[in-house]
Write a structure and sequence with these properties.
Elements: H1 2-23, H2 32-42, H3 46-55, E1 60-65, E2 71-77, E3 88-92, H4 103-112, E4 116-120, H5 139-154, E5 159-164, H6 166-175, E6 183-189, H7 195-207, H8 214-226, H9 235-239, E7 246-251, H10 260-268, E8 274-279, H11 287-290, H12 292-308
Parallel strand pairs: 3-4, 3-5, 5-6, 6-7, 7-8
Antiparallel strand pairs: 1-2, 2-4
């Protein structure tokens, strides 16, 4: 009896620690200057591009009240040639990132593809409020709100949601919900199959531990504190309900979100059109960095194909 009690107490302590470790990281997209420098290092000149457009009032800041009553921030801009805009793209960042971190995709959509762009800071990231990382699950509801805002601004009937890493999981989780007709396409880049699977991978990779009992305990803590479970937050479960077109992208050298997740996610989508592109030699979230022209070409061709249906 004493050993069982000690085990329960220990599991609770470890579960609480892991939940805090995963969902309350010290840096959570709040180091804006650091992320500006990191993004500039990857894509020289992109911060000057963004700053000039932001200063000119072409990129604007906006906020809305998201899930749980927290104020969420985003930036947005009309397409480079507004009168010829091809639609609207909602670009969704990853874990501990913010609206700055994927300006490469924002520029791709706005300048190369001529789309209006909306770029949120997810709950507890960047300039947005929040109490913990949501790993995409409740984030999907916030992205839907920003999509509605974008539709109210530009009034067009073609919207694509494009996410990377946790943003890709957010995109896939959103895709299985009931959505307005203007949501026409999704692009996911290196998203995980579920929060449970991703955390189990992280536990094994970083701490050489199996999921039981640590992950089970952390899941209980998450349910009690934040109102969602690791298994509930499932990309594959949502993809099974998705009927709208999706492009799946993953680097074959990704060992953070395992490359094998690509096939699992792809296979889970059993309804509607889908494509897959494997970025050869690319590690996590590096497909665009390693293959920029090919990346743009795949996205362009996919969207043009969707418009032809």
């Amino acid at each position: 009896m004493i050993l069982a009690t000690l085990f329960c107490v220990l599991s609770c302590v470890v579960g609480t620690y892991m939940c805090k470790y995963a969902l309350l990281p010290e840096e959570h997209g709040n180091d804006i200057e650091g992320d500006r420098a990191k993004t500039e290092g990857r894509y020289p000149g992109i911060i000057a591009w963004y700053d000039s457009l932001h200063t000119a009032g072409i990129f604007k800041d906006t906020t809305l009240i998201g899930e749980g009553g927290y104020k969420l921030h985003a930036i947005y801009s009309s397409a480079q040639r507004p009168a010829e805009a091809q639609g609207t793209a909602v670009v969704v960042h990853g874990y501990t990132d913010n609206h700055i971190c994927f300006l490469n995709l924002v520029r791709m959509y706005r300048d190369s593809l001529n789309y209006n762009v909306m770029v949120p800071d997810l709950h507890y990231h960047g300039y947005s409020e929040g109490k913990a990382v949501q790993m995409g699950w409740f984030d999907r509801l916030d992205v839907k709100r920003f999509g509605e805002m974008a539709h109210n601004i530009w009034k067009n009937d073609f919207m694509v949601v494009h996410g990377v890493s946790m943003g890709a999981a957010t995109t896939m989780m959103l895709s299985g919900d009931e959505l307005p007709d203007y949501y026409k396409a999704f692009v996911e880049d290196c998203g995980y199959t579920s929060v449970w699977d991703q955390f189990a991978h992280n536990l094994k990779d970083q701490f050489h531990l199996g999921p039981w009992p640590v992950l089970n305990s952390a899941d209980i803590v998450c349910q009690k504190k934040y109102g969602w479970s690791f298994k509930e937050a499932s990309s594959v479960a949502q993809l099974a309900k998705c009927e709208r077109p999706m492009l799946f992208i993953h680097g074959d050298k990704d060992d953070f979100v395992p490359f094998g997740d690509l096939q699992k996610n792809y296979d889970a989508k059993v309804k509607g059109y889908k494509e897959m592109w494997i970025a050869e030699g690319s590690e996590h979230a590096m497909a665009y960095k390693d293959h920029p022209a090919e990346y743009v070409a795949h996205v362009r061709a996919f969207l043009n194909k969707v418009k032809s249906f």
